[in-house]
Amino acid sequence: MDSTQNQINPVFAPFQAVGQILLSFFQKTGQLSSFIGKSLYHSIVPPFFPAQLWRQLVDIGYYSLPVVGMTALFTGMVLALQSYTGFTRFNAESAIAGVVVLSITRELAPVLAGLMVAGRVGAAIAAEIGTMRVTEQIDALTTLSVNPFKYLIAPRLIAATLTLPILVLIGDIIGVYGGYVVSIYNLGFSPGGYLSQTWDVVENMDVISGLIKAAAFGFIVAMMGCYHGFNSGRGAQGVGAATTNAVVSSSILILIFNYILTQVFFS
Amino acid sequence: MTSSSKTPKIEMSGVKKAFGNNHVLNGVDLVVPEGKSMVIIGGSGTGKSVTLKCILGLLSPDEGSIKIDGQEVTNLRPNERDELMLKFGMLFQGGALFDSLKIWENVAFGLIQGRGKNRKEAREIAVEKIKAVGLRPEVADLFPAELSGGMQKRVGLARAVAASPEIIFFDEPTTGLDPIMADVINQLIVEQVQEIGATGLSITHDMSSVRTIADYVAMIHEGKIVWTGPIDELDDSGNDYVDQFIHGRADGPIQRRVA
Questions:
Q1: Candidates A135, A139, A145; nearest CB to B58
Q2: Which domain holds residue B23?
Q3: Does B144 touch chain A (CB under 8 A)?
Q4: In which band, very low, low, confident or very high, does the pLDDT at B257 lie, cut at 50, 70 and 90?
Q5: Pairwise CA distance, residues A217 & B214, whole Å
Q6: Which of A137, A139, A144 has the CB atom closest to B110's CB atom?
């Protein structure tokens, strides 16, 4: 066959490029949807691997506590300082406690915890599962009659979805405490007044919405880490790319879903 | 190959598999009798690993039939596939040991997680298997990273045979080993397969390995089996592809793509 027959007319080249991008997009979306469906199915249908779940609860939850705690502490402290700088111009210093607690519980604790966990846990999940893919350990699981979705994916998914709300709840407390410390010892607020203003402003829904967001973000982080690791390319470059993609995609999805959930809860 | 009235343990017919425009398998036909050791030989990129992965269910063939004990296995449901996997053992090229588990846990993995045996009983079996492949029992409590390549291959073999599977697959079992260790692994494969009475299917391009472990040999080239027969007939196959391959000649019908 004449090779020129396979060459596309330059006029149609842009259409071909757009078509390829669209096809690739739909293929990736279908692949991800199928992966999510399988992961959810294997997360609720036995057999379960409780030892694996416990290991992931410790890895994802317990070991993320310092990172999330430090992030929340300094965010609360900075928030109090910045609010004070702005609010003194309007003689509205008394609103600082409310701003700190609402910002922390509704937005900053879940989003920042999600992003920090995406960096720490999402990358680790993608690297570990990607390495297992490259070294045929995932194939080995299958040949040993163990479903990789049940053994590798489900425990990570469940652990991240359960532990992130707990981390965020702790982050809420630490973040508010950070604002309290700065307000009392640096800005001269009275402890009783600050705490009463905090309690007056915060409502159950402020905290609950943050925890629901946290559960969604935990699911996203674990899912992206598992998906990119499971479909990792060959070699060190493949695992590196999987790790980067896991962190970038989960961070972007966290920001997108944060907007969607905020719209749902507070519009 | 000698005819047998018994149902073959593994039977492939017309199996095709492509990745995009790359047609790796172009109609593989292969019969492996029960209790025998079949070795598939062929150059790199000819479809050996893909053939193995199609039988194991790690890849789905595009066309053709694969039967295990006479049962079609190409379109099994997940739970049926899990049942089938209980018949299989596999020694991977790189060992594929789980880094986070101790050696005995690796060997006993299929027994504990796949077959629900308790840990104490599984550990006893694992230590026996570790000793059977020539390793000291103390190795049981080490991690894979603490072992040499040859020791990891032995552990991989112990894991493959631990649950006494009906069919054992060997993917390039001697690649990356020195000739002495390669021969040790070959001897262990023969011993272990005979001991549990399993059917063996290996892929390799190591001819000394072929001559040690094979009852039957199949030559694959460009995704098709071009010759198959008993090991005794390998040197007088009358097949140009086989002759070129076993003598390692650059000239012949097999043209290597270098670009």
A1: A139
A2: 1-87+200-259
A3: no
A4: low
A5: 54
A6: A144
Model confidence at A53: pLDDT above 80: yes
B4 touches chain A (CB under 8 A): no
CB contacts, 8 Å: B82 with chain A: 145, 147
- Residue at B227 is within a domain: yes
Structure confidence by residue, pLDDT tens digits, A159-182: 999 999 999 999 999 999 999 999
CATH number of the domain to which B246 belongs: 3.40.50.300
Spatial contact of A173 and A187, defined as CB atoms under 8 Å apart: no
Q: Is A43 exposed, middle or buried (0-12, 13-18, 19+ CB in 10 A)?
A: middle
**Which ranges of A57-203 would DSSP assign to H, the alpha helix?**
65-87, 96-102, 109-117, 123-134, 137-143, 148, 154-185, 191-201
Q: Provide the pLDDT for residue A92.
A: 84
Q: Which range among A58-62, B12-16, B244-248 shows the weakest confidence by mean pLDDT?
A: B244-248
Quote the ipTM score. 0.87
Range of the domain at A174: 49-266
Chain B residues whose beta carbon lies within 8 Å of the beta carbon of residue A39? none
> What CA–CA distance (Å, rounded) separates A163 from A161?
6
